[in-house]
């Protein structure tokens, strides 16, 4: 699975790409991340990538020419091309799973007021938001997408770890406990110390249902809500 990120600030990804699960996934060759500097496609003397918005108003807009040149050179027409935008479809685990099945995903990180609409109309397959708030740029959203997708790519994490995670089967995860058995007067639930795996599985499933009903009833089917 390969990600390409088109950005004015590739240095933001330093550290992120080397560390933890994603670092391992890249070293094993299961996930590749290519960073492309948008400014390399600017042709004017100052290598400028932004300009004032038609119609006036605050802020700058990323110009279409460098974006078009970059996207053509990256073969956007034959790749799933995503513009990260607060106005896009809200990211969720189903989209994450869908992206993990793709051979490659091309992410466009906007800056300033965003990118020229004609680029969206001509090159973008999907606009994607990571939440109902506005960030300064698409780099952090790109990292969110890459990290969420990389961990569900085959072979990156063992299947069992992913099985009961939040959003698998539309449920949130059960609570976790580790040593010591008693901490600050609070004991680990007895069932988890029982060694009875059938009872533990049952308890965990019940906890998942209770937590989801309480916090995220919107995830449940009508039957599960009652
Ligand atoms: N003017 C835009 C608006 O009101 O929708 C916000 C532009 S924002 C300051 C600059 C860039 O950050 C956007 O082009 C987008 O790439 C990225 N961005 C900001 N918030 C985002 C979010 N919630 N999800 C995805 N991308 C986001």
Task: Characterize the structure shown.
By secondary structure, the chain is an alpha/beta fold. 32% of the residues lie in helices and 18% in strands. It has eight helices and nine strands. The strands form three sheets. It has a five-stranded parallel β-sheet with strand order 2-1-6-5-7, with helices on one face. A two-stranded antiparallel ribbon has the order 3-4. The longest helix has 19 residues, at 197-215. The two termini are 40 Å apart. Residues 84-87, 109-111, 113-114, 129-131, 133-138, 141 line the site of S-adenosylmethionine (SAM). The site of S-adenosylmethionine has 19 residues, from β5.
Tell me briefly what this model is.
This protein is α/β, with parallel strands linked by helices and 226 residues long.
Index terms:
8 helices; alpha/beta; 9 strands; 18% strand; elongated; 226 residues; binds S-adenosylmethionine; two-stranded antiparallel ribbon; single chain; 5-stranded parallel β-sheet
Give the SSE layout.
Blueprint: E1 2-7, H1 20-27, E2 32-37, E3 50-51, E4 61-62, H2 64-73, E5 80-90, H3 93-100, E6 104-109, H4 117-123, E7 126-129, H5 139-150, H6 159-163, E8 182-183, E9 186-187, H7 197-215, H8 222-225
Parallel strand pairs: 1-2, 1-6, 5-6, 5-7
Antiparallel strand pairs: 3-4, 8-9
Helix pairs in contact: 2-4, 3-5
**Beta content:** 15-25%
The strand line-up of the biggest sheet is 2-1-6-5-7
Radius of gyration: 22 Å
H/E series, N to C? EHEEEHEHEHEHHEEHH
Terminus-to-terminus distance:
40 Å
Please give the share of residues in helix. Answer: 25-40%
Overall geometric form: elongated
What kind of oligomer do you see?
single chain
Given the helix and strand composition, which structural class is it?
alpha/beta
The counted number of beta strands is 9
| Chain-averaged pLDDT | 97
Low-pLDDT segments, ≥5 res? none
Ligands in the model, by name, code or SMILES, are: S-adenosylmethionine
Please give the count of helices. Answer: 8
Biggest pleated-sheet summary: 5 strands, parallel
């Amino acid at each position: 699975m390969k990600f390409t990120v088109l950005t004015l600030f590739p240095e933001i990804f330093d550290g992120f790409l080397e560390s933890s699960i994603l670092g391992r996934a890249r070293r094993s060759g299961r996930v590749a991340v290519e960073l492309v500097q948008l400014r390399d496609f600017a042709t004017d003397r100052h290598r400028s990538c932004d300009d004032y918005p038609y119609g006036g108003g605050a802020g700058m807009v990323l110009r279409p020419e460098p974006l078009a040149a970059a996207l053509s050179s990256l073969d956007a027409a034959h790749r799933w091309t995503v513009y990260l935008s607060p106005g896009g479809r809200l990211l969720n685990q189903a989209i994450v799973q869908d992206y993990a099945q793709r051979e490659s995903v091309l992410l466009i990180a906007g800056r300033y007021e965003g990118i020229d609409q004609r680029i969206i109309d001509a090159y973008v397959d999907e606009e994607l938001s990571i939440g109902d708030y506005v960030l300064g740029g698409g780099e952090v959203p790109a990292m969110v997408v890459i990290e969420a997708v990389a961990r569900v790519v085959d072979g990156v994490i063992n299947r069992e770890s992913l099985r009961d995670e939040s959003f698998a089967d539309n449920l949130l995860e059960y609570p976790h406990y580790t040593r010591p058995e008693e901490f600050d007067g609070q004991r680990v639930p007895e069932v988890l110390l029982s060694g009875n795996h059938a009872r533990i599985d049952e308890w965990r499933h019940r906890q998942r249902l209770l937590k989801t009903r309480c916090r995220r009833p919107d995830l449940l089917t009508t039957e599960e809500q009652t």
